[in-house]
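User: I'll paste a sequence; please echo it back and then give the predicted structure.

Assistant: Echoing your sequence first, then the prediction.
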Amino acid sequence: MSVLPHGVAKLFAREEPRQAPGIASRLNWLRAGVLGANDGIVSVAAIVVGVAGATSGIVPIAIAGLAGLVGGAVSMALGEYVSVSSARDSQRAIIAREREALATHPERELAKLAGLYEAKGLTPETAQQVAAELSERDALAAHLQAELNIDEDDVASPWHAAIASAVAFTLGAILPMLAILLPPAPIRIPVTFAAVLVALAITGATSAKIGGSPVLRPTIRVLVGGALALTATFLVGTLLNTSGIV
């Protein structure tokens, strides 16, 4: 087994560590799940609060909430499926082109890979040695990582994202439904506001942690957005009620 020069170790030490195979796919449906839950909370809460502002009847509130839950879950699932399918098709096309290039022009691809490592600071001789050894092990993986920073095993599943999004939306939507339907009429709105804001704080913090960003600012954005949505729909419902339209 050959030993690469010390400069190669320094080069790879500066690069971001590669994630375990499949981690991107798992993070994709986890992200879709958190965003789906957040959307379920906000959208259904806004619907039921708006209807509750217009009428105290439990049946219209329940019907509106259920319709929002079903329609939102289907919409979220379809949106995630289409979006992730498009991204997956593009990634697969890139992988196929790279595989074909390696099969038809291996010498040219090897020189390209060596050039990439040379551009990162290795000497031409060391870059050639690195490219050759990585290509012997797995040429496709070496090119995908060096040129595109993607992993063949991390092609996202649209079904995972769609199912996670729909289930999460439904779970998120159940919270405002229970908050508006279970308490007595005089405290329905305050209880729903409180429950929704607490839930949004949790989903906002979770989303930030998944993305590796600071928690406070994204959480505040989610809370402010949710509070504005609830307030706006409640005011619309109240206005319709006081105007005698409903």
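The first helix runs from residue 6 to 14. Residues 36 and 117 are 41 Å apart (CA to CA).
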